[in-house]
Each structure stands twice: as structure tokens, then as C-alpha cells.
Amino acid sequence: MEIIIVPTPTEVGRVAAARVASVVAMKPSAVIGLATGSSPQGLYSDLKRRVQAGDISFVDAHGFALDEYVGISLDHPESYASVITRDVVVPLGFDPARVQVPDGRANDLESAARAYDAAIRASGGIDVQILGIGTNGHIGFNEPTSSFASRTRIKTLAPLTREANARFFDSIEQVPMHCMTQGLGTILEARQLLLVAQGSAKAKAVAAAIEGPLSSFVPGSALQLHQHATVVLDEAAAAELQLADYYRYTYANKPTWQLDQ
Ligand code: F6R
To answer: Residue 225 above 90 pLDDT?
Structure first.
């Protein structure tokens, strides 16, 4: 796992965006796994800047969202379908027909979940999966004790997650109780994982995921099983890492041919 510690949240976005940009530059039809929430906002803004500058294009790229609430209407401003359209599809110029979000309104949710995994596979698989991490260590909405082998499926959101996401709704009661999320097994099949985290509230979860034991109790520790996982952190999110100096040292001495990889 590569751990990159940078001074500011803006720098997290810039470094992570450079990674996504290099994937798309090599493969314009790349399949991008898309996270929602606050963590990837800087990354998406930096990608938007690159699109506007004419440096990259997502016109031929494909996108798969990580997760969606169950039972929320498609046009609700906080459905992840709406969020992905607003934060990613429109500003980055994706073809909306090439971007999918799990169907949290399906009558048969289990079939819809299986179909989502099948669609990812049919696309050729995710080239780079963007991830945030919850304060309880979740990635996607794989809450603690999610199986490392799990596929896209329905999960019950942890009370802590509903509390955290209440900021997007008028009250916590309005935050849906259930979600459909790519499983940890699904996420681990991506060719590259790119997790971004900023702020001290994430420091414990980040340290547990990177340096703690591999445990379904900390779903983010699944990154340790992946051969190409990168974590980009600001100083506050990196504050609990025991080997922070070593990560700074390895990044400072990264061979130039390996930068952006
Ligand atoms: C979002 C997702 C979640 C978030 C996590 C952190 O699609 O799957 O895992 O990445 O809850 O959320 P923020 O970034 O809002 O702190």
C-alpha cells in the first residue's frame, strides 16, 4: 500500500486527481469507481479544473457509484444518483448513459444488486476505485463486520453513519436506514484503489485501516489485501499513523518514473 501524506486537503485533491488523470490519459474509456460524500470533493474539483483546461476528458469514460440509499426517490437531491450527476457527471462531462448507480428503488433489490456486480464485470472491471472512509472504518457502506468476500448487496446503515450523513438531510430521521453498496469483494476486484481522507475525525479509522490488523471490524483494512492501493491523507487524517515519517520518506524518494502510478 502506498501512503501519501500532504499538508492540506486541497493538496489531497490535487495528488489524488493526478492519479485518476493518469489512468484516464492511458485509457480514455477507463472505468472509474465513484465515491460520494465530502472526502472526494477536492479530487473532483481538481479533475474539473483539468477538464476545463483541456488536459483530460471523461467523454469516453465509464462510471460506477459505490453505493445508493434504499427507498429514496431518484430525484431526491441527496439520492446518490442525484449527487453523482451533480458532483461528477455534469462537472466532469461524463456521458450520463455510461454512469451507473445501484438501483435502491428496485422491487427486487437482491436481483438489482447482482445485476450491478454483473454490469461492473461486463464493463471490463473498474480501473480505479475512488474511496472515502467513515469514522467507523467503513468503505462504501460496508459497515463493521462486513465480509471481505461480500458482493453488492443491501446493508443496514450503522447509527454512526446515519448521524454523520444527517448533515445532508433536514433531520436524522430522514436519513434512509438501508443502502445498496458494492461489497468489499467487489471493491477489491478494482485494478487500483484510491482512498482519500482529510481531517482529524478520520485519523483513528485511517490508522486502524492501514496499520491495524486485517479485520472485518475495520472494513477499510481490506485495502491491505490489494496489490495496488493508494491512500492520500492530509496531516490531520495522518495524525495517528505510527509510521508517518516512513511514509513521508518513501514518497519523497519515489522514483520519478513511478510518480502518478
Ligand atoms: C460514499 C461512501 C462512504 C463515504 C464515507 C465518508 O459513497 O461510500 O464510504 O466515503 O462515509 O464520507 P465523507 O467523505 O462524507 O466523510
So the answer is: yes
pLDDT surpassing 90 at residue 9: yes
The DSSP line for 14-46 is HHHHHHHHHHHHH-TT-EEEE--SSTTHHHHHH
Q: What does the pLDDT look like over 31-72, one tens digit per residue?
A: 999 999 999 999 999 999 999 999 999 999 999 999 999 999
pLDDT band at 202 (very low <50, low <70, confident <90, very high): very high
Please provide residue 130's backbone torsions phi and psi, each rounded to the nearest 5 degrees.
Answer: -80, 135
Q: Is 33 in the pocket of ligand 1 (CB under 6 A)?
A: no
Three-state DSSP at 154 gives strand
In the chain, domain spans: 2-135+148-255
Tell me if 93 sits within 8 A of 61, measured CB to CB.
no
Point out the ligand 1 atom lying closest to the alpha carbon of residue 181: 8
- The residue contributing the CA closest to ligand 1 atom 4 is 132
Distance CA 26, CA 57 (A): 12
How does DSSP assign 204-238, residue by residue?
HHHHHHHHS---TTSGGGGGGG-SSEEEEEETTTT
Q: What's 2-135+148-255's CATH class?
A: alpha beta
Q: d(Cα 98, Cα 61) in Å, to the nearest integer?
A: 7
